[in-house]
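Table S7 (text form). Paired inputs.
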Amino acid sequence: MADLNRPRQSTIKRLYAECSNRCAFPKCTEPVIRGGALLGKVCHIKGAKPTAKRYDASQTDEDRHGFDNLIILCSNHYDIIDADEQTYTVERLSRMKREHEERATACSDEEAQRATNIILAGGLAVQNVVTANQSGGIAANVINVNLSNVLLDQRPWIEVIEVIAGPLTFDDEGGRLAVAIKVKSVGKTPACDVKFAGGLYLIGKDHMDVLEEQEGLCGESKNWKASGDLTLFKDRETILEASLPIPQSDMDQFNIEVPGKPRFIAPVLIGCINYASAIDNARYQTGFIYAVAEGPEPGKIHNVTVASKGSAAISFDENAPNAIAPERGDIPRGRVSLTPWLGGGFFAK
């Protein structure tokens, strides 16, 4: 598991949901968020780094950035607490947090998600964890400050770095291909709720509508309900994994026959990465299409060249990737190759 260096999105969401949109300082009524502006601050009770006040070297990263070590304060009370470490001890701040949350009224999941997006967007505008002009303490651990600092036209962007396929296995129910998609956030604002949607489409006679299939799959997946499971900040990478089925009925209907040879199938991997803006929850996608084949091994079997929509031809080119013959059995990961689809399907929108 990668080192945790900031609170998780789900932690921020829970923190807001249990604060009644108010500073945790006793009797303070200042809001955390007003309209679309972030006024409050998410702070660490025990400091997030060695130079911070109340830092505890024995804490794990999970505990340091976990729910129990975070408190929401207005700017005024943050200044008061940060200036007086002797008065505002870990025990007092923990009690303040606990009592505030016990008094809090519940908010809707939709409201909590919107607030989380605003907090995350505000944090990114100042590089997420602020240390500027501070010697430590809560100031060094703020997810800060005002949404107006975020340029609203700076949408998130997800780039697909690499797609790895395999193994491809077969049984009585059909086939199944494991895929791993390495993606990177290259935009200036976080990409929230990052998800992969994909499937395998078999090329066959009168079955060449690859781009239309992608359009339908991506259009449907764009309307998935947000879950807040995965947020990628700028320059962060992750790997999305999936296991994609090929129904036996599709293999029976859409195959390519060559006299005296096993039946071939020509799968196409259709996919898109769905993600949302941390600012306004607008939805975006990065799409791709790859022809799937068995790795090159000259002369082993006949080959299929898939050119673009509307054309598929049997080829005898011994240097081309081999078509897949299910009768030959499973294909290990190192023998499954992906070739960019010549008919398009690569986009970010």
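Next pair, protein 2 of 2.
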Amino acid sequence: MDSSRLSEAFSAGLATYLGTVLFPDFPVWTVIAVLVILQQQREATLQIGLLRTAGTVLGVAIASAVLVIIGDSEPVVVSALLASGFGMIALQKVNYAVFTLFLTAMLVFALHVSGDDAIAGGIARLLATLVGAGIAFIAIFVTTGTQDTVRS
């Protein structure tokens, strides 16, 4: 097994454990963050990690602000949910941070529609993303050493 596969497996296992302990309602978010962010090259890992984190921060902030402003108007929240889904699909090729912003906003609105505490869920998603990014960043630096690409 090459070091990149071993690194991915270890990182996913660690993310599963930490996600389960830290975010029991949404443990998969940490694992998804690691698997999406961790790439073969250090620069790509850092870029995707920063874009995903920035998009998640903005998505949580914007969706939370919208929920505070509009309150419990279900038709407006459902409209925001649908608009976020449309924005996510329509703009996915523009920039990964933009895609992640709309994805995160959509998830926050979906939590609200399902009756969950959407703002707390959004914060959990943000923290899970930060933990996942941290795991991916450590893994790529451990496996690349002084090179940019994972050693075999």
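The chain has a mean pLDDT of 92.
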